[in-house]
Design a protein that fits this description.
Arc Repressor Mutant, subunit A, globular, two-stranded antiparallel sheet, 2 domains, alpha+beta
Length: 210
């Protein structure tokens, strides 16, 4: 069997779908992360405490994000539980997020930026080139904040970037937007596992008497 660096993504295998339209609502990064968490867990009971723990946010931030989603009519609340108001369109206007997204130690800002890059990517090349401003407008961040989370995604092996060049009037060369490539998710999983092993080894060495 040939090595497949970029395995086909399917909602039936290790991925779940997110409607492209979610990014037109201009919701906060925390609200986006909560939305994808509820969507991922829609067959179970996504309790506030578990949600906050998985997303590494406080209960207050999670509650505020849920309130934002209800106000935007993206979720509805009944008897302390939350349900999706609409699902992915059948005509394919959606993108796929990996199930492991909640187990890689990502901050909600990194989840939001990563989701938007997946929404923008070319499904054949796994690449896209939105500017910091475009990303920031979609996920509610400043350009500096976007850059911080892009750097985080690079360090966590979820994406890599390349500089591009554009030619202006008079043949003047200048830097263009970054070209983003979405890396295979197993690379990020392996990197995260290696970091955890290193941390465990460090703790063992610290606890071992001299």
């Amino acid at each position: 069997m040939a090595y497949e660096r970029y395995p086909t993504r399917t909602a039936e295998r290790n991925y779940f779908s997110i409607p492209n339209q979610i990014h037109t609502y201009r919701i906060s990064p925390a609200a986006y992360a909560v939305y994808v968490y509820v969507r991922h867990n829609r067959k179970s009971d996504p309790r506030l405490e578990r949600m906050a723990e998985q997303l590494q946010i406080s209960h207050a931030v999670a509650a505020k994000a849920l309130e934002e989603l209800v106000d935007q009519h993206l979720l509805m609340e009944f008897d302390g539980q939350y349900y999706l108001r609409w699902l992915c369109e059948e005509n394919g206007n959606c993108y796929l997020l990996p199930n492991e997204i909640f187990h890689l130690g990502l901050r909600v800002g990194e989840i939001a930026v990563y989701g938007f890059l997946l929404c923008c990517e070319n499904r054949k090349t796994y690449q896209c080139y939105p500017s910091y401003r475009t990303i920031g407008d979609a996920v509610g961040m400043s350009k500096n904040t976007v850059k911080k989370y892009v750097d985080g995604l690079i360090n966590k092996r979820l994406i890599y970037t390349e500089t591009t060049t554009v030619w202006g009037k008079g043949g003047k060369k200048r830097n263009g937007t970054l070209l983003y490539t979405i890396r295979p998710i197993y690379e990020a999983i392996q990197h995260h596992a290696n970091l955890q092993l290193e941390q465990t080894d460090m703790l063992r060495n610290t606890d071992t008497p001299a």
